[in-house]
Amino acid sequence: MKTRNVDKRPEMKILLPSAIVLLLIMGSAILAPGPSEKILSIAFKALMRYTGSFFLWANLAVVILCGYFMFSKYGDIKFGEPDEKPEFKTLPWVAMIFCSVIAGAIMFWSFIEPLYHLMDPPMYAKPLSVMAYEWALSYTLFDFSFVFWPWFLLPTLPVCYMYYIRKNKSLRTTSTCSEVLGKQTNGFWGMVLEILIVVGMFLANAATMGVAIPIIIEALAYVFGFEVNLSLTVGTLLAITALFTTSVYLGLKKGIQRLSTINVIVGILMVVYMLIVGPTIDLFDIFTNSVGRMFAELPALLLSTDPFTKSTVPQDWSIFFILWEVAYGPFMAIFIARISRGRTVRQIIGYGMLGGIGAVWTIHGTFGSYSLWVMQHGILDSVKLLQESGGPATLIAIMSTIPLGKMMLLVFALFSIISMATAIDSGSFIIASMVSRNLPYGEDPTRGHRLFWAMLQGGMGLAVIVIGGLGTVKMFVNFSGGLIFIPFVILIIAWFKMLKTDNVKCGL
User: Fold this and answer.
1) How far, in Å, CA of 301 to CA of 471, rounded?
2) Could you say which DSSP state residue 339 is in?
């Protein structure tokens, strides 16, 4: 419902500095990829060397806090009226969260990450040994387990509280952080905070596009016999950008919800087909064994830094994913809050955690297990191919061993495109909401404003692809996580201060 205070115009004090920084990054990456990569690499190594252990402890703290708020008296806090039902049913709600977080990279990680762990296994195992096979899928499942989702669900709580209980109808992070920022909420440091979140979010989404788009291009080229070149890359990127800008144009319910639902159906069909035509019992055995191994070694996995060898597995994987999660945290908090009217703290954490883990483990358990099975049975030397040709070529070669492999590759490309479009779509929607001057509940940002961020996101994706490689993706992710960690911490402090301030009012 519209109010007299609605002002959908962009806040230029946030939009202009954010856009300038992003255009500078984009231009440097496209026009001077070599020097840009060297600068990123130096900063990346320093960040990993000096902050790795800190982020492992921060990860553990976030997991514990999520458990506390879910099982304590605060779990009963309802975001909305006492008798109000959730705006979105649980399955579409989980689907939107899953697709917005995971995006098009999930299939890549399910096939390829276990192979990386075969080559360079954790916990002192030897490459390609039995223990390497034991760890390959276990470590992958751990990366996407209960340590993954709290980074999105915990910051959702203060945003929901401010939005639905305190009735502050601004979706800006600074509004939620007003308990900490005080007079600076609308001042200089408040603007800096918003700019950090916008830039960090764009870098994280660019990294996602840097993983997903090359795989989509390779898959389409393999199926239709195209040559992979710059024209195909730019054409594919433009087509994907057109898809998510169209979805952004349609809005939250007509665009994002429909894309999420379609993608979940496509993902289920892929899993079902794989279980019908694949070595189903072997796949289930590999998954079951991997879950057991993960839980058996859970304490070590949570805080592993591998300090006595030259291995960088924790830095390359656990800490990398933590920083990716941090980068998406404040953005996902706003997005989940926007779709969580009528839900309780316990429902947001519980359903979000169970739904996310269930969906990701289903995909990893099916396709990650198959990737290991193909390697173990000598059908394809996937590890050698990964070393020589990279991830996209390896993924396509593995999928080609599945009956009707080309059909599966087309479905895979569709799944990845829709997943990525949903993530970029929701990102553009929320950034436009954040940068709007005053956007009450139920109001969408203007279509032109949403389209501006969507098209800028397409340009950032091109920048990552031009530099190229998984290493570049990791560097973009680590910088985005480093930028957004400060706003993330302020959000959590604000949540505690709100609960303390409103203790009597809320009857907690």
Assistant:
1) 23
2) T
* Residue 99 to residue 421: CA distance in whole angstroms: 9
- Assigned token pair, 339: 């779709």
Interior CA angle at 399 toward 398 and 404, to 5°? 135
Q: Who contacts 188 (Cβ-Cβ below 8 Å, separation ≥6)? A: none
Question: Can you read off the two tokens belonging to residue 304?
Answer: 């592993």
243 within some domain: yes
**Residue 387 maps to a domain:** yes
**Measured between alpha carbons, how far is 77 from 507 in angstroms, rounded to an integer?**
10
* Token reading at 429: 């929607």
pLDDT at 139 over 60: yes
Among 273, 365, 308, 330, residue whose Cα is nearest residue 480: 330
Three-state DSSP at 156 gives: helix
CATH code at 279? 1.20.1740
Q: Alpha carbon of 49 to those of 36, 45, 319: distances in Å?
A: 20, 6, 11
Determine the structural domain holding residue 483 and report its residue range: 7-499
Compute the average pLDDT of residues 145-160.
93
Instruction: Return the amino acid letter for 438.
Output: N
* Cβ(328)–Cβ(201) below 8 Å: yes
Average pLDDT over residues 500-506: 65
The verdict on residue 2 lying in a domain is: no
DSSP string, 445-507: PPHHHHHHHHHHHHHHHHHHHHH-SHHHHHHHHHHHHHHHHHHHHHHHHHHHHHHHHTHHHHT
Whether 112 contacts 392, CB under 8 Å: no
Residue matched to tokens 């079902």: 272
pLDDT digits (tens, 9 = 90+) for 53-101: 899 999 999 999 999 999 998 999 999 888 889 988 888 888 888 877 7
| 349 contact partners, CB below 8 Å, separation of at least 6 | 66, 69, 70, 75, 150, 153, 154
The predicted model scores a pTM of 0.85
- pLDDT surpassing 60 at residue 507: no
Biggest CA pair distance of the chain: 68
Q: Is the pLDDT of residue 476 over 90?
A: no
CB 88 within 8 A of CB 257: yes
Whole-number Å distance between alpha carbons of 137 and 16: 44
pLDDT band per the 50, 70, 90 thresholds, residue 471:
low
- 158: its two tokens: 């203060």
CA dist 134 and 156 (Å) reads 35
Q: How crowded is residue 89: how many other Cβ atoms within 10 Å of its Cβ?
A: 10
Q: Is 403 helix (H, G, I), strand (E, B) or coil?
A: coil
DSSP helix/strand/coil, 275:
helix
Number of domains in the chain: 1
Tens digits of residue pLDDT in 278-301: 999 999 999 999 999 999 999 999
Residue 505 lies in a domain: no
